Amino acid sequence: MHGRFGHPSPRQVEPGEYPAWEEALALVNRDVLATLPDQEPLRLMAQPPWEEGEREIVHVTLASGEWWGDHLRHDPAEPDRDPLAALAAVAEAAQDTVAERLWQAWPVCAAHDRGMHLSKDEGHPVWRCAGDGRDPGHVGARVGELGTQSTTAGSPSSLDRSTLLG
After folding, report:
1. pLDDT tens digits, one per residue of 19-28
2. Which helix (H) or strand (E) holds 45?
3. Paired residues of 138 in beta bridges
4. Given CA atoms 15, 17, 23, 25 in this order, what sign does their dihedral have?
5. How confident is the model over 100-134, as pLDDT tens digits?
6. Whether the Cβ atoms of residue 141 and residue 109 lie closer than 8 Å to each other
């Protein structure tokens, strides 16, 4: 199948191709489900390389296959060496795609009704709210934990949560 300008169309990533990104996306999709319950889960799509010898390009997409922003950068072994870096990369790509393709801030702080941004807290990727100008801001939740009361209940991921979420 070919897309624009005769270039091969993107394909859905098969299970097991990019395990660290797949496990990270499972956590990000928990946040999507908690905050956008009518939205289908995000997925990984791979764009074949433009030129021989290049690597394929992987994006975090809506269920429709649409995406926005940078692709996930990788060295074939790198994502598996640092699951927190993989989680941060997937969360950032997901936020770009959701915000630009759905035309809304995501995720939104429940306390301040403002978009949160990806940050780190004690080495873990978190959604941080800048506050409303009267307070210094705060961590809304660790990535994968929006709308949850527990950090361990019901994880859809086989990722070792003690490694990822401490």
Report:
1. 999 999 999 9
2. strand 43-47
3. 129
4. negative
5. 999 999 999 988 899 999 999 999 999 999 887 77
6. no
